[in-house]
Fold:
Amino acid sequence: MSESGTQPTTFTSLGVAEPILRAINEIGYETPSPIQAESIPPLLEGSDLLGMAQTGTGKTAAFALPLLTRLQTNRREPQLLVLAPTRELAIQVAEALQSYAKYMNDFHVLPIYGGQSYETQLRQLRRGVQVIVGTPGRVMDHIRRGSLKLDKLEALVLDEADEMLRMGFIDDVEWILDHTPPTRQIALFSATMPPQIKRVAQKYLNDAKEVRIAAKTATATTISQKYWRVSGLHKLDALTRILELQQFDAMLIFVRTKSATEELAEKLSARGYSAEALNGDMSQQQRERTVERLKNGRTDILIGTDVVARGLDVERISHVLNYDIPYDAESYVHRIGRTGRAGRTGEAILFVAPREQRMLRTIERATKQPIERMDLPSVGDVNEKRVERFMQRISDTLDNQDVSPYLDLLSEYQKEHDTDPLNIAAALALLAQGDQPLLMVEPPPRPERERRDDRGTRRERGDRDRGDRGDRGRRREFDRAAKPLKGRPDMDMERFQIAVGHQHNVQPKNIVGAIANEGNITASLIGQIEIYDDFSTVDLPSGMPKETLAKLKRTFVCGQRLNLRQAEDSEGAPKGRPPRKRPSNGGGKRPPRKDS
Structure:
């Protein structure tokens, strides 16, 4: 897209505010993506927008940059509400908004979702925020409580509307829309346009500008792509293992901030690697010299941000490692494009934190290429390689160096101190090794809770891969004895009773949505649901953490506190009045089970 047919479109020419331009320049955004170029102008003008684009095309910035530009930070009241289908996406969008608004004075964004205490959210709401990013269920709860007032709302964004439809939240979305001022601006983004979403758009959007962006595959087939699930302090350990065992010529490592480039370069240099930072604080001359050192082999590793690494073409770069996952799939494509150029082969590695699994799937869908999970080298593998290199250094020195002066010296030392020659050699090896230990130490085993969380994330990933998220019509049926789930022999189910039923106008989707968001449980792991007059039962995986059960006990559905507890009899069957109608499992067509 071009301006007046000649000049390329820029974020400046689109009218994005200066503090936001400064922030996105640091992040690495150079030119607007198609969805951004088409969406920013109408949103800046205050028009409603209907956007059809795949996740990963840069749509978060497409709505965030113009709506943040219009935000009034001197007002401490919700002006922008973003509805997201899952807590992961809500957190991701909130973090992106915070990064875009880095240089906006007195800016406050609050993610509200299940699994976080109400008190934390209530405290932030009382202090005042301009932007709310939330899941429908928790947003509804705050509106009902009166803790979230939308009477001054200027704009509302429905992110991944088709996903909210699949998860059964579309009625909740309409309820929220009905509680917003009629003058508010709406931006609706959806990858597809099923009839229900089209109906919502026709009902609530006024003279909306329509934007359609086709998804494209943009990664070279010569690049092998892998990911490793790691986070926080474990990243450096994982990186060290990869560097020790991967055969690479030169490597480009991407991080999100300029300060992180310096910090990681220092840590790698301290571990004996030839590593340098490449960031926007360096002069053009410094950057050119740094790149030249990479080209001629005096430096092997560059740690950079998106903004300085775009356009970098160095034939030696055999590996690109995403130490920090990018904000969108387009940035990922640009990053890994620094290797595998001109028909050459390359390898791209992506570090993914547990709560970044969603972005991993987004990248796979946007690039239409699977990313293989890699096996991180074990401590034993690393130590074996270190010992091998240590032995080789001894052999190379004996073969290529004159050691005779040292032989006389050490022979004299051995006679004088009557010391075993092997002990002398060991002492010299220790001196040569310096502060860096020769062997890695096996880290202590992770707590059971962390291992359980890891399994849960893997299950969630598998559910998403099969496209079953929110498809409660396919949920497995469990009998009264809570038999193991077919295909997952390690998972047993328990029956719980909740204090909400037909008299509260509850539906299975309400129960599934609340439990999935509040308990951070993927919807496909929620079993049989039976709704009675004044209570319901639901099957959940056995051995759930006490903290999760406590959160679910305090959760509200349809204005009623769940008071979740184990079912009353030994078989798990509820006591009380029978259902008024057939048991419901969230949309399946199985016949009801007979009570024992």
About this structure: The two ends are 67 Å apart (CA to CA). The chain has four domains: 2-212, 223-378, 380-433, 469-596.
